[in-house]
């Protein structure tokens, strides 16, 4: 049985035929396709396979080379559906088949042939649950349910909830996403609903709730590691519970605002991992994410108060490893800007913010500029080093009881690393002229495991060209995540 691969373009069948020199000597041999069978696809509807195998079953009159070409097209469609762990394909003589008398080919004797696809479905239904704890958000619960075979048509339904009940960072973030395959399985119709409630009193002196959705098209090409999303978004945002001491520019946005947007995102990734199964620690390569939106924001109680703007962000990550992967460098960079032809201010929920465990450690959440701004940048470098074996010895050999966590090559499934990191950044309405840059440095330990991981380090932060110490949070920073699921890491 041939295994699916993100880098495999042609089927194992084609490779075998070329190796045996069959295509070269018999490419014009007439073949009658008597049937196409699928073994192992019982959980999918017949309409699902008819759509994906359409190029193959449209006709029965082939030459051998034409048949192999259409088998390859159909197999690639099955791969792009992204619901199979393995896909095998084989040709078999079918002399019991009844061959029509009138055919395109009559010079050579026809070979009645059937094609068999042998597939193994991935885990199509999964539920995940995580408990997360860090300096910014205290304890929060993250629950997720995924059904990748809704309606037996490889359509995806995903429900997610992130909940933090503890003051001063309470939040409830819920979303429901639906993905439906089009004729080309690389293209999917996307419908995403979301609802959020966030207590931002600790840093913004207000709370916010948002309800909305996105409808669009999603293109995924795993062979080229490319992802593209384009769509329309509508969201109702409400800033409420504003403190008396909050700045006037925040009070300006009190009440309901409706945001409508044209959004698009492009993600390109070319990354290799320390372990090819767990894929949790990048060692070489890069990825780029480009996000753009053209939006309009309108106050509901005053429809004349409307602002249009464009917003763009670019994020890059570069990975390189040395000394037999014992040292790994991670260079990261983010930059973004908002442009508006209007003199009206940009809504506080659309502005950029920086600071906190997930953006610029050593500073409290969004503290670089708590009012937000129209431009930002962040640049940093992290060096990871393998922990000496006398402190921690990782499991290196494949074991029969954990086949899903080892690739058999000796790479670590769940690495523990020492790290040192440094980063700089700023949030301003003109980052080229504003010299008040923030920076932080730190070092610590990081254990990377999909179901249980931790990150603990000591950080020192500083604001340059400024006497302000607002938001500086020197000392230990930590994050712990523990989870469980009814699925295996693949």
From TrEMBL:
Alphabetically ordered keywords of this record: Membrane
Entry GO CC: outer membrane
Compartments where found: Membrane
InterPro entries the record matches: Bac_surfAg_D15
Any one Pfam family match given in the protein's UniProt record, by short name: Omp85
Superkingdom of origin: Eukaryota
Gene3D superfamilies assigned to the protein according to its UniProt record, in alphabetical order: membrane protein fhac: a member of the omp85/tpsb transporter family (2.40.160.50)
Domain Bacterial surface antigen (D15): 134-480
Name of the protein in question: Bacterial surface antigen (D15) domain-containing protein
